[in-house]
Amino acid sequence: MACCAAAPPVDPVLKQQKATNDQIDAELSKTRKVYCLIMLGTGESGKSTLFKQLKIVNDLKFTEEENTLLKETIRKNLVMAYHFVLKDLKDFPAGEAAKTIYDYVITSSERLRQGLEGLPVDTPQIAAVRELCNTSAFKEAFEARPDLWRYDGASYFLRNAERIVKDDFIPSKEDVLRARKKTTAVSEVSFSSQGILFNVCDIGGQRSERRKWYTLFMRDVTAILFVTAISEYDESLGEDSMTNRMHESLNVFKALLQQTKDTPIMLFLNKRDLFDEKIKRGVDLKVCFPNFNGDDPRTYVKNQFLALSESAKRAIFPHFTCALDTDNIRTVMQNVQAICIGSMVKASGL
Fold first, then answer.
1. Domains plus CATH for the chain?
2. pLDDT tens, 247-261?
3. Helix (H, G, I), strand (E, B) or coil at 226
4. Which residues contact 219 (CB under 8 A, 6 or more apart)?
5. Cα 86 from chain centroid (whole Å)
6. pLDDT tens digits, residue range 252-301?
7. Is 313 helix (H, G, I), strand (E, B) or coil?
8. Strands 34-41 and 316-320
C-alpha cells in the first residue's frame, strides 16, 4: 500500500519573511506609483548633462526634434569656443591666426542667426584653430588662466571642429553630453525601475530661474537631487563676478534645507574629475575655505554641505559624480532609486 510522504514543516521565519515581502510589494503597487524627483542646483553645475545621462542610462531615445536642437546647440557651442579663443585670450599673440578665426566666427554666427544648416567648411580656418590650440604658448596661457575657461567643453569642441562643421554631422554620445544650453524651462524625463515609474524634473539654476523652483515644491516630491560643481571653488558667478560659485552653491543648499524640512536630498558633488585636476595642479582650496586644514579635499568639501543641516537626522545622501561618466551615473542612479524605495517602505512602517 503506497504511502504519501508528509509535507515538510514550513519554517516560521521564512513564512513571516515571505508575508512581509508580499506586504511590501503590495504597498509599493498601491501607494506611490510615480516617484517625483526634482533636480536642482546653481547654474553650470552639470545638471543638464546629468539629465541627458538619465535618458542614456535608461536606454531612452532622443526625439528627432531633440536631435535637431542638439545638433544646432553643438555648433553654437563650437562658435562659443572660438569666442573664448578670441575674447578671453585677447592678449595672446596669435597674429594672422586670430584674424582667420575671427572671420570664421563672424560668418558662422551669422549663419546660425539665420537658422541655416551647417557651418562654413573652410579647412584653412579650421586648421588655424587647431594650430593655435596646439602651440605651447596657448597651452601655457590655458594652464595659467583656467578661470577664463568656465565653459568646460571649449577645448573638446575645438578639437572636433572639422567633424562638427560637416553637413552630414551626426552627434555622438559624447557630443550630446558636452553640449551646453542654458535651461530656462522645466524639462522632464520618465523611466521605470523595479516596476516603479520615476519622473525627474530639471529646472534652470541661474538666479533668474530659481523663482520657478517653488512651483515644483507643490508637487508630491519623493526626493531632491541637488547638484553642485565642486571644481568651481576658485571661480566666480557669471551673473555676479563678486560672488564665489562654491559659496553661492552652499547658500542655495542651506536655503533649500530650510524650505524642505523632510524631503530626502541626494547631494551630487559633481565634476569630481575637474576638482581632482585642480587640486593636483596646486589650486589651493583655501581660496574658498580659508580654514581648510589639509584633510582630504573631497571629504572636506562634502562636510561643508552636510554641516549646513540643522538636524542630524536629516536624510542627505552624498555622491561624488562625473556627469560625463555614464557608468558612474548609472551606478549612482541605481543607489538613488534604492534609497527612494527604501524611504517609502520605511515611511509605510513596514
1. 34-61+183-337 (3.40.50.300), 64-178 (1.10.400.10)
2. 999 999 998 898 887
3. strand
4. 36, 38
5. 28
6. 999 889 888 788 899 999 999 999 999 998 999 999 999 998 889 999 99
7. coil
8. unpaired
Residues 268, 40: Cα–Cα separation, whole Å: 10
Q: Which single residue is written with the C-alpha cell 541605481?
A: 334
Residue 234: all three cell numbers together: 576658485
Which cell numbers hold the place of 214? 517653488
Q: Which residues of 22-33 are buried (b: 16+ CB within 10 A; e: fewer)?
A: eeeeebbeeebe
Which cell is 229 given? 560643481
In Å, the largest CA–CA distance within the chain is: 106
CB 72 within 8 A of CB 121: no
Using the structure block, give the residue that is written with the C-alpha cell 514550513.
Answer: 10
Other Cβ atoms within 10 Å of 112 Cβ, number:
16
Give the Cα separation of 295 and 293 in Å (integer): 6
Helix 123-134, helix 96-113: angle, nearest 10 = 120
Closest CA to 81 of 175, 192, 2, 16: 175
**Amino acid present at 81:** A
The C-alpha R_g of the chain, in whole angstroms, comes to 25
**What grid cell was written down for 50?**
546629468
Which amino acid type is present at position 268? Answer: F
Rounded Cα gap, residues 75 and 71, in angstroms? 6
Q: What is the pLDDT of residue 270?
A: 96
How do 187-193 and 196-202 pair as beta strands?
Answer: antiparallel
- 227, 278, 319: which is closest to 41 by C-alpha? 227
CA distance 137 to 159: 17
Q: How far apart are CA 79 and CA 83, in angstroms?
A: 6
**Residues 6 or more apart whose Cβ sits within 8 Å of residue 60:** 54, 189, 191
